[in-house]
């Protein structure tokens, strides 16, 4: 964003726009009914539609997607979730924000949309469930927090393990001293993704409103290997594998170890597997110095897990033992490497949605509020900045900001297109 636009944006996010009411909207609130709009229906959006649908007192009134092919998929997912009333399909999510009957927005659009859609929804008087990573750049997270606070709206970030009984037990065990003082948090993610190949600029297909799909970010030509999901591999729209999946396990390490921001970031990342258009690394080792503690993340996007058989996992090493956890369960080992306790439980998919809805109806702070979502994704942003700049980063551990600026400051923010800047 240019300086003048940033000031306008912050001013816009600081305004609380009064939500007009109708008799129907008032009746919904009286009955504790929560009416939602879904933004993005291809993959995660349809999954969320099926998870929100069975929850009592919830209606998904709109499915919004600039790809008209996805609208029927999203509408079908709402029906599969058990909703009897058919959702309305629209390309532009702003149509749903204009509806006074809508209480909240589920944002499952690509990463470059997360901040702008959340801020616009808050300004329209809506609550937001926004998928991880909550922001595309560091600056966006701070703007989102300001917008949500000023509007007084609930924003839940899609880091569902925060609501899972398994991971809540883990944090309780760690903080209770089960493995002593935790000094090292290691996490990993392995997957065997195919190549994105090569593609030349071309005219967007008729079924896609590509201008709307790009939304707030500066315009780039359409290429067939951007959609769908593969946009994660391009910096203009995504944050690579660490932003896609690393944020989940980094968040759990940070939560269990009681850490806000790192003081130093060291990264080695590269592309090893394919010669294609992918811009983000397919292999990364990131190290986050956090005072006298260390958090690490390893990501490999071209090779399945073998030794552990687990795609995703966390190892916490303490002065009195080690804890290993993944979505299948948790094992605590003593210093003699003997397992002393095993636990299992939910990873939190349904509970996370229920937590969001409870906060809408009764107030309170959601488990994965924007403050927590921002702190966790900052680890990912900083790792990507270090990788792209080719140098380690020194940071203020209280704010996560770069010390003395440097080349990384150029990647702290992005420029938005004028027509997508929120206005009063």
Overall structural domain count: 2
Total count of strands: 15
CATH architecture of the largest domain: 3-Layer(aba) Sandwich
CATH H level of the largest domain: which superfamily?
NAD(P)-binding Rossmann-like Domain
Low-confidence sequence ranges: 1-25
Alpha plus pi helix count: 12
Please name the CATH topology of the largest domain. Answer: Rossmann fold
Biggest sheet: strand arrangement: 14-13-12-11-7-10-9-8-15
**How much of the residues is beta strand, in percent?**
15-25%
What Rg do the Cα atoms give? 21 Å
Please identify the structural class as seen in this structure: alpha/beta
- The first-level CATH class of the largest domain is given as Alpha Beta
SSE topology string: HHEHEHEHEHEHEHEHHEEEEEEEHHE
How far apart the termini lie comes to 18 Å
Oligomerization state of this entry?
A: single chain
Largest sheet: 9 strands, mixed
Name the average pLDDT: 92
Portion in helices: 25-40%
The geometry reads as globular
